[in-house]
Specification:
Number of helices: 10
Amino acid sequence: MDSSCPPPTRRRRVYDLLPLIAIAVFTGSTIVGRQAGHQSGTGWLIFDIVFGIVAVGLMLRLGPWPVRTALVLAVLAAFSPAATPTSTVGTLTVAQRRPLRVAALVALAGAAGHLVQRIWRPVEGLNLFWYVILVLAVHAALLGWGQWTQARRALVGSLRERALRAENEQGRRVAEARALERTKMAREMHDVLAHRLSLLATYAGALEYRPDSSPEKLAQAAGVIRTGVHQALDELREVISVLRDGEIDELPGGRPQPTFGDLDALVQESRDAGSAISYDAEVSAAETLPPATGRTAYRVVQEGLTNARKHAAGHPVNLVVRGRPGDGLTIELTNPGGNGVPVTPGSGAGLVGLTERVQLAGGTLDHGEVAGRFRLHASLPWPESLR
């Protein structure tokens, strides 16, 4: 490191002293100028030098005490022109930091001090009238400049604060949007994978408890498990891809989102896994059902069948779906309450997420045990079709 370069703290101190040095130079120039104006003499010179030193020294107190210091400088300006530069800076400083009323009083005191100075130490070549006009104009300009600077500083600070607040608000909105998207993605992952894995657990359980099955049935069950594993991996890959891309309206890979028309295949898939399902559907004009409502209905049935396999394996399930345009769509799924350990462990968040999904679709979801049976009931809006 070059020793000739002063350290940053020392350099900053020098920069902080530059205004004080400039004021000292102006004060010295004022003293020299008045001495050259036929007011020479050792007594006046010493008098102005002493007042100049005191005035420059008071500049160090202008920061913490601007009003008091400016008033003292105005008094010093009444006795010696050596205090004129410092009194001017004091008036401007107060105008930049204090309200208009206080700043106007300080400016008036500064003007009065200079008028007193003119009375007992007149300036040759400038009569009293023009001197008064000049002093009032200068102090009015200092007052206006300081108030304008103060207003501009306040405006810039307000705009900066508003910009910071808007930036924070935008960040909060982005965070909330991301959290909402991730919640929707997590719900989608649960709906997709919980159903598929519960089917695999059912087939694996059959292999475990029926090892004496024929080779053909064992091979068939193993094939179903292998296919289910591949499907679960594909669905997991799709959901991860969705999570990475941030889009959930369409699944990647060209596979469409499930619709209301896929309910029959969903029920049949559960039946193939060994579930006894009584399925009763009376739906009119199903083609007019909004896609979002149909997808929500599919997820309701999927979650209900998944929970039935997990908590009441081997018990029959009753599924009733009713609906028509204008009356809405209702789904009711009942099964006997479980009496053992679930086939697959769960977090208990499935019904919570399902309730949120149904509410977002404008419907309601009720679930709980009624007379020893678990009941899942969903009601979804279905507006009348426009003709």
